[in-house]
Amino acid sequence: MLDYSVLFPVNTTARSAVSLDGMWKFSFDKEGKGCSENWMNGLPASVQMPVPASFSDVFTDHESRDYCGDFWYEKEFFLHDCGDRRVELRFGSVTHRCTVFVNGKEICFHEGGFLPVVCDITDAVKKNAVNKVVVKANNELSEATLPCGSVKELMSGRKLAAPYFDFFNYSGIQRSVYLVTKPQENISDYDTCFELKGADADVHYQVYTNGVHDVHAVLKDREGNTVAESAGAKGTLHVENAHLWKVRNAYLYTLVLEIRDGETVIDRYESPLGIRTIRIEGTKILVNDEPVYLKGFGKHEDFEVIGRAFNYGVAKRDYECMKWINANCFRTSHYPYADEWYQLADEEGFLIIDEIPAVGMMRSTRNFVKAGTGGFTHFFETDTVPELLKNHKLQVEEMIARDKNHPSVFSFSLFNEPETTSKEAHDYFKAVFDAARPLDPQKRPLTGAFEKNSQPELCQVYPLCDFMCLNRYYGWYISGGPEIEDAELKFRDEMNRWAAKDLNVPFVFTEFGTDTMDTLHKLPSIMWSQEYQDEYYERNFSVFDSYDFIQGELTWNFADFQTTEGIFRVNGNKKGVFTRNRQPKSSAFVLKKRWENK
Ligand code: CKU
User: Fold this and answer.
1) Which of 277, 269, 406 is nearest to 336 (CA)?
2) Each residue of 335-388: pLDDT tens digit?
3) Fold entry, domain 280-595
4) Is residue 417 flagged as an active site residue?
5) Ligand 1, CB within 6 Å, residue ranges
């Protein structure tokens, strides 16, 4: 169990959460001299930097945009007299790692750029006074941390990130920061599990606290009426005529948890709660015991100017586009997203495949081209693997702890497109899956996304998965353009070989798509034109519809997104069904029509 609480900050009668978003001081540290020059006490020279935001696209020069190395943030905040309460800072994420200092004192180090950094600063803060938080961050990539990559040094001496993955290495404080005060005796975590009993439902819960006093749980309906109550840190809330959380028809109750000392409320935490079950039975995905076919996208957190930062306006637009197109699911490719994405999915009734940043385990900056031809078949044989595995397991633990209570999360994806054909790969992922299994109280299905090298005869890893996720580009990386009819034959050949394995699990396509320019039309179609994207999808659908065990289609990608520059990318990856500013390409109408009745 984590030794800090990842619960999303809330304001209740017992807790306060104050946003520290806004302009922070910011400085690059090219020479890595910040610590020796005492920057933890304040940055000597700085510019203003918005938080949350990636730093890259707010600048107008190459060197700043592509900066790789250490960089620092600073912010002053006033803390009122809060008595002997516990004071914490919670960063939604700092990419990819950071050390936090408060009033010059080192507080914590956190590895991993897509999960919360939470630290107890009680002993470092002054009450009724101005305090200073300084964050030393770093965005270098390596083969020992997630996501994988390396750092390239130019002849000029400048460092550049060399990602083994296809998205820009956006970095910074990309999610909201909260100053939290809460009682010393507090609720640090809770779990929920659901059992449907005819029209009723049981909500089994467990609350974790750091004290001895009693716990009380109350469930309220949408109107605020109490529908069930229970005393004890562990118990059951019996709900009569339960409103279920359904796909694209969500109902959220409010769970109120309190620590009580007689009549006195010591701590109080509140959170939305959706009652639903998830199960895989044979080749079906069941939500509330009803089969669901997954329709939607692999996404990215990506937008003009703000990079990978969370923004409510962009997220709202994305959900409106996904509703318009009749989608019901997305994958948080290739890293856990900001908390707010899951909160909105809970409200809107979307299913989420929640993915860890285990991407790039193929030692190639262009695995999307080379791996399809059988290259890069080793990765898990090097001496960085034990450290990588340690980081991988820790991040899986942090992700499940953060996201386990969201009704929208129906599965955890523990990798994207690694090398899977060796015994070493099998042993590595066996260790990851074994570590993950006991962590989820709801025992949701575990999976991972497989690329083309992971063929039925070669892949050593698929038996670990509860359902199969395939990323396939028949008609793009394989037999694209004039050869497209062969693409379909090759695709069917592979699917027939999977069918022959008779795995009796659902298969979901978690990537398929074509780069498409929103300005290019051509009759007959040509690769990169909108007409080609439409035809490619139609051909893929005819294959999907031939196999009963295919139970979902998440296209690549929801929207165009930024990548590293290179000869394969024209100002980014253009496989969006929507443009980067969220306007539909013509295939959006093809999908909308198909998904209306699917
Ligand atoms: C996508 C071999 C397929 C890899 N897949 C990963 C994803 O991150 C890329 O953006 C392919 C692509 O090439 O568009």
Assistant:
1) 406
2) 999 999 999 999 999 999 999 999 989 866 555 565 555 555 578 988 999 999
3) TIM Barrel (3.20.20)
4) yes
5) 165-166, 334, 367-368, 371, 417, 451-452, 471, 511, 556, 573, 575
